[in-house]
Amino acid sequence: MRLSDAIEQFIKTMMVEDDHQIELKRNELAEYFRCAPSQINYVLATRFTPEHGYVIESRRGGGGYIRIFRIAHDSGRQLLYAVLERIGDSIDEHAAANLIQQLYERELATKQEALLMQSAITGQALSLPITIDMKNALRAKILKSMLMQLAHKDAGTGGEGRA
How confident is the model over 105-151, as pLDDT tens digits? Predict the structure, then answer.
């Protein structure tokens, strides 16, 4: 098992035991795993993101900490909006596919919705004579538009009946 996987699993196990919220000290965790604090940062930045259903709060300094919250399923609308913020102006195909998979796994998108979203953001769907940067910007706009519809549907505002 890779070190990153071990750190991720350790944190997730702690979260189950502590009711989906934990507080860690980055340096103590790095000492425990005998790694650099930057390795802890890497795991947090790539595996505990809003797209994966987590929110991280941190405070630096001597009394600093990292709090990780697992977003509850009934906060699906909040997760969708957090994801919208996270996408920014550009997203590559791999990151978009991961995000869609997480929405499906968290039951924020049905299988059919996830498949439709996935097909709309593929390289094949965006096979236009434009630069990769422009494709990623277009992909972000398409994905944000679809997520807004999911958020409206989740909020009960009738998003599912629109065409």
Answer: 878 889 999 999 999 999 999 999 999 999 999 999 999 888 877 76
Spatial contact of 82 and 100, defined as CB atoms under 8 Å apart: no
Neighbour-count burial of 35, counting CB atoms closer than 10 A to its CB (0-12 exposed, 13-18 middle, 19+ buried): middle
The rounded Cα 42 to chain-centroid distance in angstroms is 14
Classify the C-alpha dihedral 70-153-112-131 as positive or negative.
negative
> In terms of C-beta density within 10 A (0-12 exposed, 13-18 middle, 19 or more buried), how is residue 157 classed?
exposed
More confident residue, 80 or 104: 104
Distance between CA atoms of residues 108 and 152, nearest Å:
11
Length of the chain: 163
Catalogue the E-assigned strands of 41-135: 54-59, 65-70
